[in-house]
Design brief:
The protein is of the alpha/beta class and 206 residues long. The protein is built from eight helices and six strands; from the N terminus they run ββαβαβαβαβαααα. Strand 4, helix 3 and strand 5 form a beta-alpha-beta unit. The radius of gyration is 19 Å and the shape is elongated.
Length: 206
């Protein structure tokens, strides 16, 4: 059963999400991460591609735990990361680091920092399942003011590449084609958008 995870705060900024989606593909990760009282050393590293919800999850983590969130941690200095990890120990407030890759790939120079991050809980956002793909397509198109019926979302979800970047690319393509062609979003437009991304002619009638 899918649930919309309501965040316990007013989202900051006009582009911020006030909720993130939880389906079978990421439920275990979310449940483990938000059990912050049991995080080893009060620290966790969240790994996931662009568009997978890391920033929104991080904001909710801070609000719920009273801790710290460092987004794009792979671009921060060793000193910044080291101090954040140490504060989690001295102040008792957990820290969540987020990046697209694990700490071993961040170019960390301080061995002590690398070992500390290695001792933290590492959680990776799994690839989206069919349900997540459909729901996220609807969410992204809703941002553009476009209604995307359940049937169309399901149609696209079973035919598209199953990744967060691919979902974002399909939503952008559907939006652009609907505007350019001045056509309502229907199965034909979705099929053509899928074909455009795949580099085919879109002639199939399935």
């Amino acid at each position: 059963m899918t649930r919309q995870f309501a965040l316990p705060f007013a989202a900051a900024g006009p582009e911020a999400d006030s909720a993130f989606l939880v389906t079978d593909c990421n439920r275990a990760v979310i449940d483990r991460l938000f059990d912050w009282t049991r995080l080893p050393f009060g620290a966790a590293v969240l790994i996931g591609p662009t568009g997978s919800g890391k920033t929104t999850i991080g904001r909710a983590f801070v609000t719920g735990s009273g801790g710290c969130f460092i987004d794009n941690a792979d671009g921060e200095s060793d000193e910044t990361l080291f101090h954040a990890w140490n504060r989690a120990q001295t102040q008792g407030a957990p820290v969540l680091f987020a990046a697209a890759s694990p700490p071993a790939q961040w170019g960390i120079k301080l061995p002590d920092l690398l070992s500390r991050l290695g001792a933290s809980l590492l959680v990776k956002i799994p690839p989206p399942d069919e349900e997540m793909a459909a729901l996220l397509l609807q969410k992204l198109l809703a941002r553009a003011g476009l209604a995307f019926p359940d049937a169309l979302a399901a149609y696209a979800a079973v035919r598209m590449e199953r990744s967060y970047p691919a979902i974002a690319a399909l939503a952008r393509t559907i939006d652009e084609m609907a505007l350019a062609m001045q056509r309502p979003i229907g199965q034909r437009l979705v099929r053509e958008a899928l074909a455009k991304l795949a580099g085919t002619d879109g002639g199939s009638t399935d």
